[in-house]
Specification:
This is 5-formyltetrahydrofolate cyclo-ligase. The chain is α/β, with parallel strands linked by helices and 187 residues long. It has a single domain, classed as NagB/RpiA/CoA transferase-like (Rossmann fold). It binds adenosine-5'-triphosphate and magnesium ion.
């Protein structure tokens, strides 16, 4: 329940940050991201198509393509034990609007990518702590996915999305690092 309270509060906070401000935060965050070895060495990047209140992931996807990296995006299966699969993403026409402002890849088995092929996974979330724990959007999709994911996993956030400690449930799994506009917090 505490997680839902935080979700409501953080969503409200994110709604009040203007697109212009978010754009500037993103510029500073990605500047750090692109300098990391995780980014430089990754051939395949796992990332979401951002929703309206989030930091826009499109510039990151464009940058990955520019650097000849493969981009893979998740498809969630709410009716199949909140499983998540990643698919190759090469252009906008491959997207399907599944709910409100939520976009996912169409199911195309030729484009299915196995977890071990993803070198760097950018894990979305609303609130984070310095140990890498997070409150996501509440589906438990990433917690389940991370159980079998051994490569690098990081999150991008604004400093105002960072708190000292997030109470954790036994199934919550931390990311390896959080990159903000100010710093890279390696866990
Ligand atoms: N590994 C798991 N196995 C079974 N159920 C899980 C697992 N991880 C999470 N869940 C379930 O998913 C629900 C949502 O978890 P939680 O509130 O931590 O979501 P979240 O971390 O915000 O979501 P996400 O991981 O998609 O970002 C919980 O009620 C929990 O029971
Ligand atoms: Mg969780």
């Amino acid at each position: 329940m505490y997680k839902d309270t935080f979700r409501t509060l953080v969503k409200r906070l994110l709604k009040h940050i203007s697109p212009k401000e978010k754009e500037q935060f993103l510029v500073d965050i990605t500047k750090h991201l692109y300098e990391t070895e995780w980014w430089e060495q990754a051939d395949t990047i796992g990332i979401t198509i951002s929703r309206n209140i989030e930091l826009d992931t499109d510039p990151i996807i464009q940058q990955a393509w520019k650097q000849n990296k493969a981009v893979v995006i998740p498809k969630c299966y709410p009716e199949d034990d909140h499983r998540m699969e990643f698919y190759q993403y090469t252009n906008k026409h491959e997207l399907e609007n599944v709910f409100l402002d939520l976009y996912e890849p169409k199911k195309d088995l030729n484009k299915l990518v196995q977890p071990q092929e993803i070198d760097l996974l950018i894990v979305p979330g609303l609130l984070f702590d310095y140990d890498g724990f997070r409150i996501g959007y509440g589906g438990g999709y990433y917690d389940r996915f991370l159980e079998n994911f051994l490569n690098h996993k990081i999150s991008l956030a604004m400093e105002q999305q960072l708190v000292k400690h997030i109470p954790r449930d036994q199934y919550d799994l931390p990311v390896d690092a959080i990159i903000t506009e100010k710093s890279i917090y390696t866990i």
